[in-house]
């Protein structure tokens, strides 16, 4: 059964013993972050936290509890996406896209449901009053100070919304986008929207600004967990994230009409902020913000959002996350993306066997890729292909190894790659767009990339010496020692 709301997700997390309720009074300013950081840094990602007694900036008690680290373990990200194993979702996508045209009519008919799988659960409009609109504040009644937005690090420019779904529409094609972009709270009814220039929300805004039209924006907090994850997924601009969430959860996402603009909102959200951006207005200073690089992002100029309505459930929970030096909760969201998107990457770069973005590489800094190398120069072909794909184009360092290397184990990937390179020959630099958060590049969002060819070198690649074998014990000896092992009485850490 799909989880339909944040409270159902929290109940399910509690049922698997991964929720910790905090009843002591704790401040939204820095204290929740410090507690969450200690949990997120613990082995396995620590428990999800529900803060039931939260103190606001003015010292009064918040009417709303704060939930944090809900997605921050392997069990919980799987629970959120309704799967036992993240790769199962990749397998479902593989099945859908690797369809050979079958011979017989019956086989052809059997295919139809599989092709329709992605579109089987489109978002559904819901009549009547949506749960997220049980309480409504409009215009002057909007007061964002009542919500326990977090200040996450001492050097932050203010309070931030850290786990939002930002909903906008492509004015030319009418396609919805849902993106997870942090938002700074500027006043009781204004916000600064930190969508980076490579993201779809920012492209919609540029298009609206070119048309000189006011841009409606909706910010949803909570909703079903597959939708919350989908906001962070790098889907092409032509795919509505709520359609994708429907595919993940095998049930439609229910939507309701916003009250003060033409967009739709997830009916099951905890809270919704409706508003607009006026492209005629000057940009506002956003940041600094303690970011997922582990360093502060510098303050910069971003569009201002005017909030025209704040709607919520009768007793909402405010969902948040914390970013900072990895590992943090976002590792699990990004890891789900890594697993789910593998078959899509393979569609255009079929020699890819596997890939992995280890936590300290914060996704865009380091990507290990294993390939089935069939011809000379193929590692370079793969790197060039990846630097030409969506957000993978922002990857700063790519390390390519042969198919047998387990890239999900960074120690193994580095061990093999570093053994296999002659640095002057096997390291190349390229130029291109880089992530907005890269503080070292020569220009803002422009800089160099490094490709490392850690594959075995071939004669045709100019390698004339003999390539050595990897050391491995023979099977007979291993089998004999397996038998003998219990009698030896040697106890190793990690063994039962
Ligand atoms: C916790 C978290 C915070 C994020 N904050 C931002 C942000 O402030 N700005 C941004 O552009 N992307 C941010 N991202 C990354 C985007 O959510 C991600 O790139 C997503 O694919 C964007 O959606 P889009 O492709 O529809 O634009 C964040 C991701 C996570 C998981």
What does this structure look like?
It is a single chain. The protein is 27% helix and 24% strand. The chain is α+β, with helices and mostly antiparallel strands and 496 residues long. The strands form 7 sheets. Strands 7, 8, 9, 10, 11, 12, 13, 16 and 21 form a 9-stranded antiparallel β-sheet that branches. A 5-stranded mixed β-sheet has the order 23-24-25-27-26, sandwiched between helices. Helix 4 packs parallel to helix 9. It binds flavin mononucleotide. Flavin mononucleotide binds next to strand 10, helix 6 and helix 9.
Supply database-style keywords.
alpha+beta, five-stranded mixed sheet, 13 helices, binds flavin mononucleotide
Helix and strand arrangement:
Elements: H1 6-15, E1 19-22, E2 26-27, H2 31-40, E3 48-51, E4 54-55, E5 66-68, H3 74-80, H4 86-97, H5 105-115, E6 124-125, E7 135-138, E8 159-161, E9 164-169, E10 176-179, E11 183-185, E12 190-193, H6 200-211, E13 215-222, H7 225-230, H8 241-249, E14 254-257, E15 264-266, E16 269-277, E17 284-286, E18 289-290, E19 296-297, E20 300-302, E21 304-312, E22 318-320, H9 330-348, E23 352-356, E24 366-371, H10 378-386, E25 397-402, H11 410-420, H12 423-426, E26 427-433, E27 446-453, H13 475-488
Parallel strand pairs: 1-3, 2-4, 5-22, 6-14, 24-25, 25-27
Antiparallel strand pairs: 3-5, 7-21, 8-11, 9-10, 9-13, 11-12, 12-21, 13-16, 14-15, 16-21, 17-20, 18-19, 23-24, 26-27
This protein binds flavin mononucleotide.
């Amino acid at each position: 059964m799909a989880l339909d709301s944040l409270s159902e997700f929290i109940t399910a997390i509690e049922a698997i013993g991964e929720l910790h309720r905090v009843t002591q009074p704790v401040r939204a300013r820095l204290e929740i972050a410090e507690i969450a950081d200690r949990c997120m840094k613990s082995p396995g990602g620590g428990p999800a936290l529900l803060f039931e007694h939260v103190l606001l900036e003015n010292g009064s008690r918040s009417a709303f509890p704060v939930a944090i680290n809900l997605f921050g373990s392997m069990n919980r990200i799987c629970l959120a996406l309704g799967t036992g194993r993240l790769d199962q979702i990749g397998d479902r996508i593989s099945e859908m896209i690797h369809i050979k045209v079958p011979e017989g009519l019956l086989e052809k008919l059997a295919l139809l449901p599989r092709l329709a799988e992605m579109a089987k659960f489109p978002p559904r409009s819901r009549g009547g009053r949506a749960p997220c609109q049980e309480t409504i504040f409009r215009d002057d009644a909007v007061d964002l100070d009542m919500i326990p937005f977090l200040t996450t690090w001492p050097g932050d420019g203010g309070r931030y919304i850290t786990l939002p779904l930002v909903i906008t529409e492509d004015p030319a094609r009418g396609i919805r986008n849902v993106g997870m972009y942090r938002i700074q709270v500027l006043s009781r009814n204004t916000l600064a929207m930190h969508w980076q220039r490579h993201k779809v929300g920012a492209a919609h805004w540029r298009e609206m600004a070119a048309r000189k039209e006011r841009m409606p924006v909706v910010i949803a907090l909570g909703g079903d967990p597959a939708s919350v994850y989908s906001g962070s997924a790098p889907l092409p601009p032509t795919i509505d994230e709520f359609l994708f969430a429907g595919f993940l959860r095998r049930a439609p996402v229910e939507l309701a009409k916003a009250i003060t603009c033409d967009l739709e909102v997830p009916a099951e959200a905890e809270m919704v902020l409706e508003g607009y951006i006026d492209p005629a207005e000057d940009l506002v200073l956003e940041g600094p913000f303690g970011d997922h690089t582990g360093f502060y992002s510098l303050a910069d100029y971003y569009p201002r959002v005017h909030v025209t309505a704040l709607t919520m459930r009768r007793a909402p929970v405010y969902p948040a996350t914390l970013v900072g030096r990895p590992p943090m909760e976002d590792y699990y969201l990004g890891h789900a993306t890594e697993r789910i998107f593998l078959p899509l990457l393979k569609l255009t770069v079929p020699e890819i066997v596997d890939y992995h973005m280890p936590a300290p590489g914060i996704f865009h800094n380091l990507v290990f890729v294993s390939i089935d190398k069939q011809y000379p120069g193929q590692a370079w072909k793969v790197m060039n292909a990846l630097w030409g794909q969506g957000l993978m184009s922002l990857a700063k360092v790519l390390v390519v190894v042969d198919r047998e290397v387990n890239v999900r184990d960074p120690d193994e990937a580095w061990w093999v790659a570093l053994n296999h390179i002659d640095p002057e020959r096997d390291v190349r630099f390229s130029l291109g767009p880089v992530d907005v958060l890269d503080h070292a590049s020569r220009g803002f969002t422009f800089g160099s990339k490094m490709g490392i060819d850690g594959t075995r070198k071939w004669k045709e690649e100019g390698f004339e010496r003999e390539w050595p074998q990897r050391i491995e014990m023979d099977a007979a000896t291993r089998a004999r020692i397996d038998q003998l092992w219990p009698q030896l009485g040697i106890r190793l850490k990690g063994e039962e």
